[in-house]
Design a protein that fits this description.
Layout (H helix, E strand, L loop, with lengths): L4 H27 L1 E2 L3 H9 L12 E2 H14 L21 H22 L3 H26 L3 E2 L3 E2 L6 H23 L6 H5 L9
Antiparallel strand pairs: 1-2, 3-4
Helix pairs in contact: 1-3, 1-4, 1-6, 3-4, 3-5, 4-5, 5-6
Amino acid sequence: MRPGSGLGFASVLMRLTLGAVFLWAGLAKIAGRVEPAADDAARLVAVGVSPVTTDTTAVRRMHAAVTLPLLRAATPVSVGDRPALVAWPDWAAGKQAPRLAWAASIADLVFGVFLILGILTRLASLGVAFHAAAGIWLTVLAPAIQARDTVLRFLPNRHAWDMEFWMPHAGLLALLTLALALVFIGPGPASMDRALFRQTPPPSP
């Protein structure tokens, strides 16, 4: 085996896995449907999100996965007599939240395709890393901090062996780590980047 060939194979495997996951996630957010709770449905209607059909309250999954976390982070509910903690800028919530949900879902698709083909791999991986980090903040850390129910001031106060709670969040952390690894090690040999940007070795003297 040539030196570095193992690392190249690992890079390709990581890239294809990460690309497939994000391509699937983007499709699921756009094509998937979910029935929000009554309070959440009212909150979505207030920012212009309508049900996908007139005979149901179901909305696109992106609004449950992205729009609602943005709204909760930017306009939190007070806990007791303490002031509410804002965890997301107001200018990026409100009526902008559904637009950001669409942008995030389309970005999932684009990043997924780019990673699978190995096009602008490092840039796509950086986008995926930012996306995963934002997901961890909005769905794990910010809700716990806003509820003032934390361990070490930022982790949710849940039992360490609560697999049902932690496993989805551990998945986001794994995706973030994979994306950052690809930023540093690149796309690997079987990629469009390697074909398009291959450097010609200097001529022998």
